[in-house]
Structures are given as structure tokens and as C-alpha cells.
Design brief:
With about 300 residues, this protein is mostly helical. The protein has a domain at about 25-125 and about 145-225. It has helices spanning about 1-5, 10-40, 45-65, 70-95, 105-125, 150-175, 175-185, 185-190, 195-220, 230-245, 250-270, 275-290, and strands at about 140-145, 145-150. It has a two-stranded antiparallel ribbon with strand order 1-2. α2 (about 10-40) runs parallel beside α6, α7 (about 175-185) crosses α9 (about 195-220) and α10 packs parallel to α12 (about 275-290). The termini are far apart.
């Protein structure tokens, strides 16, 4: 009874809400990786590095504009766009020439870019930890079910579903999204009807990079911005994509929920080994549903 009362205490509910807000970051980054892996078939190991660049760019933009709400909003726009521009250069300059090559070559190329981007970040921003202060309007907390929840966490809870609906509309209701889905299944047939598949792939890659940059910009006020912040994130993102279902936006959302909440609540159940719970959840899902929680879209 004591265990149950602890499990359903107010602290557990508070931890649940905090876990939901972290899930938003995981979903945004994982959805971008899912698009790239699902349509282009590129296991983009550098996706975490792009997330890191987004965080550093957000830091620079906020400090350039002197802080405040306007600077923070500018960072949420400029940082993802900057990462998307970098993604466009990488896709047009390198990946567009290698789509027919083996997946191992693409994997090695993305790993090389991860190392290069890491060194470039070190050159531009140095090795010191950076931090971002939230605007005054986002400081403080609101009461949710009688429990305090920081305003910024509440914003993240609202952003997640908006991004999910936006991606679903892009993939399922726009011409570009439908062409991308068709190209993922049979790119030769799409090319045969006169569609430039290369630009479709470029659009998909840039969108995925934009989401990585957005995730980095959103996480900036919640953690220390530093070299290496991409390492754990990319592992988690790949596990979420595999667990949710390849190329499935809702699968990425569901996988992020499972991963984020099991980690958050696992800390309450067994603090010393809380980090193990999300990986146990991944193993359990893949044992019973090897193709993921939701079916692969393509």
C-alpha cells in the first residue's frame, strides 16, 4: 500500500507532466529523423549534431538581440532555418549524388559529417558550457491539476501536438508530401512520369534538418548547451523511430511518449536505474511488435 500511495502521489503526477514536456523535444527531433530515414533511406547519424547546432544558434541569436521575448522568438525561427540551410548544402552537395549507393556508405558519410560538425561547433563556440535564460514572461509556473508546472513546460506541451498535426498535413495533404511517399516506395516510377525526385528528396531532408534545429532551439533554455549534447539524443531518436514505426509521424509521437514517460517515471520507481526503463520499454515493444508500435507508412 505504501508503494501504491507513493506511485500515485502528487510528485508522480508532477514528474509525469515534466516527462510529457521532454517528450515534445524527443518527438520533434525523432520525427525529422523518421522522415529522412523513411523516405530517403538515409540513417542520418549527423541528425544529433544538427540538433546541437540548433541549440548553439539559438544561444547566439538570443545574446545578439539582448534577450527578451522578441530575441527568444527570433531564435526559434532563425536557428531552425539556419540548420535547414546547412542541411540543404549537405543534401545538394553530397547526399544527392549517393542515393543509389549502399546504405553503409551513406551511414559512414553521415558519421563523418557528425565529426566535422562537432569540430566546427568547437571552433565557432568553443568548449565551454553555454546557457540561455528564459524571457520573464515564461518564467514562473501555472497550476495544472493543483500542481505547479513551469510556463515553458506548458508551452512545450502545446507545441508537440501542433508539430504532429502540421507534419501529418504536409505528408498526407500536400502534393509534395504525396510525391515524397510515392518516391519512397518506387523512385524510378516517380522519375518516369517526369517528376524531379532529387528536389523532393531535398525538401524532405531540409524539413528533417529544420525539425532537428527546432528541437535544439527549444531545449536550449532547459539544459546546458555544450559539445556532446548530441550523443545521447541521437541514440534515443533512433530507438524512438524504430519503436514507433519507420516513417510514421504518429508512431514517432507514440514512441516518444513511451520513451520519455518511462524514463521520467522510472526515476521515481528506482532512482539509481531510472535510465534503464526506457530501454527496457524499447526491448519489450520490439519483442512483441518487431515492426514498431504503428505500421510503417512506406
Amino acid at each position: 500500500m505504501e508503494f501504491l500511495s507513493h506511485l500515485f502521489s502528487s510528485g508522480t503526477l508532477s514528474q509525469f507532466l515534466v516527462g510529457l514536456s521532454r517528450t515534445t523535444i524527443l518527438f520533434i527531433v525523432s520525427s525529422g529523423l523518421s522522415l529522412i530515414l523513411g523516405i530517403l533511406r538515409i540513417p542520418n547519424v549527423a541528425h544529433g549534431s544538427l540538433y546541437m547546432v540548433g541549440a548553439f544558434l539559438a544561444y547566439s541569436v538570443i545574446h545578439l538581440f539582448g534577450g527578451g521575448v522578441a530575441a527568444f522568438v527570433a531564435a526559434l525561427v532563425i536557428a531552425p532555418l539556419g540548420v535547414a540551410a546547412l542541411g540543404f548544402v549537405l543534401e545538394r552537395g553530397f547526399f544527392s549524388h549517393l542515393y543509389e549507393r549502399e546504405h553503409l556508405m551513406l551511414l559512414l558519410l553521415t558519421f563523418s559529417f557528425a565529426l566535422i560538425i562537432g569540430d566546427l561547433v568547437k571552433i565557432v563556440w568553443g568548449t565551454e558550457y553555454r546557457s540561455v535564460t528564459l524571457p520573464v514572461v515564461l518564467q514562473g509556473s501555472a497550476e495544472i491539476l493543483g500542481l505547479p508546472l513551469p510556463y515553458y513546460n506548458l508551452v512545450l506541451l502545446l507545441v508537440g501536438p501542433v508539430i504532429a498535426v502540421f507534419l501529418w498535413l504536409v505528408i498526407n495533404r500536400t502534393k509534395m508530401g504525396k510525391i515524397a511517399r510515392a518516391a519512397a516506395v518506387d523512385r524510378e516510377m516517380v522519375s518516369a512520369v517526369g517528376i524531379n525526385v532529387g528536389w523532393v528528396f531535398a525538401f524532405t531532408f531540409v524539413l528533417g534538418c529544420f525539425l532537428a534545429g527546432l528541437g535544439g532551439a527549444l531545449i536550449a533554455p532547459m539544459t546546458n548547451i555544450s559539445l556532446g549534447m548530441d550523443h545521447s539524443l541521437i541514440i534515443e531518436a533512433f530507438l524512438i523511430v524504430i519503436m514507433g514505426g519507420l516513417g510514421n509521424v504518429w508512431g514517432a509521437l507514440l514512441g516518444s511518449l513511451v520513451f520519455g514517460l518511462t524514463q521520467s517515471l522510472g526515476i521515481l520507481v528506482w532512482p539509481k536505474f531510472g535510465i534503464v526503463f526506457p530501454y527496457l520499454a524499447v526491448v519489450a515493444v520490439l519483442v512483441f511488435r518487431p515492426r514498431g508500435l504503428l505500421s510503417s507508412t512506406w
